[in-house]
Write a structure and sequence with these properties.
Helices cover about 30% and strands about 20% of the residues. The protein has 17 helices and 18 strands. A 9-stranded mixed beta sheet has the order 3-4-5-2-1-6-7-11-12, with helices on both faces. Strands 15-14-13-16-17-18 form a 6-stranded parallel beta sheet, with helices on both faces. It has a 3-stranded antiparallel beta sheet with strand order 8-10-9. The N and C termini lie far apart (about 60 Å). The protein binds adenosine-5'-diphosphate (ADP) and alpha-D-glucopyranose. Adenosine-5'-diphosphate binds next to helix 1, strand 13, strand 14, helix 14 and helix 15.
């Protein structure tokens, strides 16, 4: 029998580890293609050509010179990541030659051209998948989050029915909402601006367009797939997602076991394994010293590695810091985001300088060191589509303490008396407020 041709899939996303990352989206887009490739699928990742993306690729070549939606010149650059992923980057400097957060400006506001740039990105992805650019066509276009939300609309507008489309919702809170005035820049049929298209309360929603026009919808855990079909968890899209229940699946995320491996992790001083935890105690000792925490191997050391937003429930934890310290616990936090939450933790660190350490910012090596050193990891999220830090924690022998929502519910086995007696508990769950 002739060997079946491997499925060719174009991932379309705005982030991909190790090139560009603000959160778990990047981890999944960096890891899932490698896992799919290993089972015989050919995945290419299409990314915006941010400076770190273009400089992080090896063996680059120009695939095509094109004009984007606005007529401005752009190039498609093909190359590989250090981890061996095939990437095509949209080198459109007028849109993507930016420093700092890819979506927010220096004052923390959405960048003014987000609508135009991610529409152009999605249109070019659709053209690439159909084979209008380059010689290759793809069987599946797999879009991730609102930044790639218009891909299915552009394929439909082009009359293409061959390329199958999937949208993965990594976080329904980010809906890609823009004023109606953006419509003129999109080049889509006017009647797509309707209740069963991309119109959302008089605005344009890129994510709604993806839900409306994609062949299949996935999200990142089974519990979140149910939550987003409710009025509360649906964040305005609940009814639409209930109507799409037949084409909606919750598929649990995973982590890259090579990137997160305490036996080989180059970021940590003392490597260790599940059967030899001695190195973990040494890492804790070193971290306490490096972060100027009181050296005490018996102090229960908690960590938080997170975006500091209300989603993550860290305002609740900020209120508990005195209590943690009064019980002999310590906290090492790494994160950035909401200035009020940052300020609350900085104040707690000032009050308890030998028990609480707060590092504001984004620091990949420190995230690894914290997981390798801490006893427990707090993730008190109000909602959590999947969450990856609890998976990294478990890989590093760090007990996740999590709100019982979304993917946290699906990945952590609560230490109930029953789970403890059968030896299957992996963490602690609590009911979020
Ligand atoms: P989300 O995508 O909602 O932010 P996830 O738990 O899915 O949450 O993924 C977060 C990812 O980002 C993890 O890999 C975590 O280690 C990483 N991360 C979060 N904040 C920081 C930070 N300040 N510095 C380094 N890594 C971080
Ligand atoms: C989002 C979610 C997070 C999820 C990640 C990767 O950022 O907030 O829960 O793990 O995407 O899917």
């Amino acid at each position: 029998m002739a060997k079946e041709k491997p499925l060719s899939v174009l991932f379309v996303a705005s982030e991909c580890f190790p090139l560009i990352k603000t959160g778990g989206l990047a981890d999944v887009v960096g890891a899932l293609p490698r896992a799919l490739d290993a089972i015989g699928t050919n995945v290419t990742v299409f990314l915006p050509g941010f400076p770190d993306v273009l400089s992080g690729l090896t063996g680059t070549r120009t695939l095509a010179k094109i004009a984007d939606l606005s007529g401005q010149p752009a190039k498609l650059i093909a190359g590989k990541t250090q981890t061996g992923l095939s990437v095509i980057a949209l080198d459109a400097p007028h849109f993507f030659n930016i420093k700092g957060n890819p979506y927010l400006d220096a004052s923390g506001q959405d960048r003014a051209d987000n609508g135009q740039k991610f529409a152009a990105f999605s249109k070019i992805a659709a053209d690439l998948a159909m084979g209008k650019i380059g010689r290759k066509t793809y069987d599946v276009l797999h879009a991730h989050d609102w930044q790639a939300g218009l891909c299915a609309a552009y394929l439909k507008a082009a009359g293409d029915t061959r390329v199958k489309t999937v949208i993965t919702i990594h976080n329904l809170a980010f809906q890609g909402l823009f004023p109606k005035s953006l419509l003129g820049d999109l080049g889509l049929p006017a009647d797509y601006f309707s209740n069963d298209g991309l119109e959302y309360w008089g605005k344009v929603s890129f994510l709604k367009a993806a839900i409306a026009f994609s062949d299949h919808i996935t999200t990142v855990s089974p519990t979140y797939a149910l939550e987003i079909q409710s009025d509360e968890g649906g964040m305005g899209f609940g009814g639409m997602l209930r109507a799409k229940a037949g084409t909606l699946s919750g598929i649990l995320n995973g982590i890259d076991l090579d990137v997160w491996n305490p036996e080989t992790d180059p970021e940590i001083t003392h490597n260790f394994s599940a059967v030899n935890l001695a190195g973990k105690a040494n890492n804790k000792q070193k971290l306490q010293k490096d972060l100027s925490l009181r050296p005490d191997k018996d102090a229960l050391l908690f960590t938080v590695i997170s975006r500091l937003t209300t989603q993550k429930g860290l305002d609740l934890l900020a209120d508990m810091t005195d209590y943690i310290v009064s019980r002999g616990g310590q906290l090492a936090m790494l994160g950035s985001g909401d200035s009020a939450i940052e300020a609350a933790f900085l104040a707690a660190a000032k009050k308890h300088p030998t028990e609480i350490s707060v590092t504001i910012g984004y620091n990949e090596p420190l995230a690894h060191r914290l997981q390798a050193s801490a006893d427990a990891n707090f993730i008190p999220s109000r909602f959590e589509p999947c969450g990856l830090t609890q998976l990294c924690a478990m890989r590093y022998g760090t007990v996740p303490v999590v709100g019982r929502v979304g993917g946290l519910n699906d990945t952590v086995i609560d230490a109930s008396p029953m789970a403890q007696s059968s030896g299957v508990a992996t963490g602690v769950q609590f009911s979020p407020i």
